[in-house]
């Protein structure tokens, strides 16, 4: 490594490049306030606004506020995050919403923890007493979905749906974003858990939207989409446990139906209900097939996880 390369590496370590990523859809009423908040909190950061087919003046307002404005035509927050992670190059990434609900002043503390503890993600957990900031349906849904992830994947985050996160470069550039909508936060959380990444949480204030800004999150529609993603990730990441449930159900059904047949056979030596006996045999075979699918897919999942882990390890940890 020559002198120029050493100086560049030293500069990157002492002054990491920070990118603030703001996915937006119809946020003209709040985006200028959001940009200004992050500019004050992180004066050296590059602020990127990715517009997702807004019908209002989001693009114009964001440009006038001094952000780098780009567009993603495919609708959905997950699609926007995929594009941002692919396009933007930085050492540290701050992902937030463009609705001025997250506290920009918490970003420096979140970044400091990421670097000092060499973490890959710090989640800003939301704290708010304002009903209009965090609606009751959203609170209940968040607790329910967080509980599902905890039950399936073990110890997890206290707020898996938070859109306020700080990432290392190796997280962003090794994360294969597959989600299309608001389920992106759940996918990010499960990805970190499955690869056993060093992560942390930090409580941050959560405010109500400014007047004129409306939430795009549907409590029921998006809640069902997130639940469907959790179940799908359970099938993909833990196939033995997933298909083992069906194996157990098939075997229990076969056992329940066969007890009376077995008792009659022991008493009389006859099998009076042949169709029931055939059904029991079929259920046992289905159970065996289901378990075999789980074992085969577990091998595939292990290989995929190893590849993702190697891609993740190919990049340096923050602060190293």
UniProtKB/TrEMBL annotation:
Family annotation (SUPFAM superfamilies): Nucleotide-diphospho-sugar transferases (SSF53448)
UniProt keyword Transferase present: no
Transmembrane residue ranges: 240-262, 274-297
InterPro entries: Glyco_trans_2-like, Glycosyltransferase_2, Nucleotide-diphossugar_trans
Occurrences of domain Glycosyltransferase 2-like (ranges): 20-139
Domain of life: Bacteria
Keyword Metal-binding (UniProt): no
Keyword set, alphabetical order: Membrane, Transmembrane, Transmembrane helix
PANTHER family: RFBJ PROTEIN, UNDECAPRENYL-PHOSPHATE 4-DEOXY-4-FORMAMIDO-L-ARABINOSE TRANSFERASE-RELATED
UniProt-recorded name of the protein: Glycosyltransferase family 2 protein
Taxonomic placement: Bacteria, Pseudomonadati, Pseudomonadota, Alphaproteobacteria, Sphingomonadales
């Amino acid at each position: 490594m020559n002198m120029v390369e050493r100086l560049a590496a030293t500069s990157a370590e002492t002054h990491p490049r920070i990118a603030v990523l703001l996915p937006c859809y119809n946020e003209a009423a709040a985006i200028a306030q959001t940009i200004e908040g992050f500019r004050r909190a992180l004066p050296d950061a590059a602020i990127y606004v990715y517009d997702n087919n807004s019908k209002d003046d989001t693009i114009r307002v964001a440009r006038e506020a001094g952000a780098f404005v780009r567009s993603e035509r495919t609708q959905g927050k997950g699609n926007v995050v995929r594009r941002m992670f692919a396009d933007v190059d930085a050492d540290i990434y701050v992902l937030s919403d463009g609705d001025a609900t997250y506290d920009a002043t918490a970003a420096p503390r979140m970044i400091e923890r990421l670097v000092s503890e060499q973490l890959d993600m710090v989640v800003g957990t939301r704290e708010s007493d304002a009903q209009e900031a965090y609606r009751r349906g959203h609170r209940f849904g968040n607790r329910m979905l967080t509980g599902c992830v905890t039950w399936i994947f073990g110890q997890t985050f206290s707020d898996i749906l938070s859109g306020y996160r700080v990432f290392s470069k190796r997280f962003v550039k090794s994360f294969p974003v597959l989600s299309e909508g608001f389920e992106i936060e759940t996918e990010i959380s499960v990805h970190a858990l499955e690869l056993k990444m060093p992560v942390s949480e930090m409580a941050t204030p959560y405010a109500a939207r400014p007047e004129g800004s409306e939430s795009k999150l549907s409590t029921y529609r998006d809640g069902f989409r997130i639940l469907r993603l959790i179940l799908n990730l359970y099938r993909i990441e833990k196939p033995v446990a997933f298909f083992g449930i069906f194996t157990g159900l098939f075997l229990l059904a076969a056992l329940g139906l066969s007890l009376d047949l077995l008792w009659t056979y022991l008493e009389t030596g006859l099998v009076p209900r042949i169709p029931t006996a055939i059904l029991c045999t079929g259920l046992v075979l289905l159970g065996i097939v289901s378990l075999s699918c789980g074992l085969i897919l577990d091998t595939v999942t292990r290989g995929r996880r190893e590849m993702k882990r190697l891609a993740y390890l190919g990049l340096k940890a923050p602060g190293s």
